[in-house]
Amino acid sequence: MIPVTKPFLPPREEYDRYLNGIWERNWLTNNGPLVNELELRLKEYLHLDHLLFVSNGTIALQMAIKALDLKGEIITTPFSYVATTSSIVWEGCRPVFVDILPDRLTIDPKLIEAAITPETSAILATHVYGIPCEVEAIQRIADKHGLKVIYDGAHAFGVKIKGKSIFEFGDISTCSFHATKLFHTIEGGVVITKNAELLKRMAYLRNFGHDGFDRFNGVGVNGKNSEFHAAMGLALFPHLEAIQMRKKEQALYYFELLKGLRVKFPEIGGIDAYNYAYFPIIFPEVQQLKKSMKLLEDNGIGSRRYFYPGLNRLDYTHGECPVSDQITERVLCLPLYHTLSKEEQRLIARLLLRVQNN
Ligand SMILES: Cc1ncc(COP(=O)(O)O)c(C=O)c1O
């Protein structure tokens, strides 16, 4: 069986070393030393001023919306994972969908202004598949209209533009460290901001609003993460470069193998460091996608319609986004993970070409 993705596990003894420390200290959660060490390592690695390790990428988005005190409408992308939209709704705001760029699949900044109303409080956009949004154009619009900007960077670990981490843009960025992500802590995520005041607010939010044992600063939630999760991230760090290199090699090999296949790949030019976290292909029509998925499945190969349906098509949302509607019908992510072999990639490519040429 070739799954569509597979979590990376560090050598057992490397994780065990961290576990031994946890047993010695008997400190399992609540801002423990490994959580602090992981936050420091991440700040160093990504060259960021402030971040907080939280329980997952969804709570990261919810905390960001809460910390910025957003109300009313939030302009967002229809082409992302459901958590981008559900977080908006969960926080009592209304998602307003703006269509995506056909090549890069991120929100189209040219369409944002027409969607702004007196009710709009923010823009929440996704660096989908790690492809950076048009951050400068988005910031100009936000500044002009007094809107906040949140980036869902769940897929964007390690991505850089203009010589800096993609997480430096916007008021708050979030990332997911779910087991299937490039860098993971089994479950986990981060909120990132340059603003020390916002960081402080999110630190309260993460811990029920506790300001000491018996005082509270506003309404909080439990967004904390544990020492065991932090340990996984720390044990994974030494392998990160190798994982990233491997994914890049695999992606470049797919490009070569799939030259004869009439599919489109999202545009990834103009990025200083890209992470090749996913391998999406866009078929010319949905029938070819369905036949390809079926033949892959018959051969024990997983693939995923990531993202389908579009988020404007959920039963609690609406919005007309013709570009996104077309892409969501025709996009498929192929297997990509550290142990995927060249032989397996060749098999996948052969099957895809067989469907096209039959
Ligand atoms: C774009 C996007 N946003 C948010 C999330 C939510 O992250 P988590 O699974 O860590 O809650 C995901 C998860 O896959 C995602 O892909």
UniProtKB/TrEMBL annotation:
Keywords: Aminotransferase, Pyridoxal phosphate, Transferase. InterPro entries: DegT/StrS_aminotransferase (IPR000653), PyrdxlP-dep_Trfase (IPR015424), PyrdxlP-dep_Trfase_major (IPR015421). This is UDP-4-amino-4-deoxy-L-arabinose--oxoglutarate aminotransferase. PANTHER family: PROTEIN RV3402C, TRANSAMINASE. Belongs to the DegT/DnrJ/EryC1 family. GO terms for biological process: polysaccharide biosynthetic process. The active site is at K181 (proton acceptor). The modification N6-(pyridoxal phosphate)lysine is found at K181. It comes from Mariniradius saccharolyticus AK6. It comes from the Bacteria. One of its GO terms (molecular function) is transaminase activity.
